[in-house]
What we know:
2 helices, mainly alpha, about 80 residues
Amino acid sequence: MRILRPLISGLSSALMPKSVMGAWLDVELAEKLRDAAYWDRESISDIVAEALRKLLAEREMTRGSPYPPRPFRKKRGRPSKSSE
């Protein structure tokens, strides 16, 4: 039986805005993640999001306060070619 996840800020995680991110993982860790997703019938994205939420909450607890927003947002993607 699958455990239902609590709603976050009144929205289920399926309805929250998403952002694509990439990460390089050790092969062994990536395989364990794929195995967990297969056997638990859960998406890799859901497993990673849950783990990151727990990790960040733990770090903020250790830190004593939430992380403040970055002073600026770095532009994503490749830098544009300068005019020649």
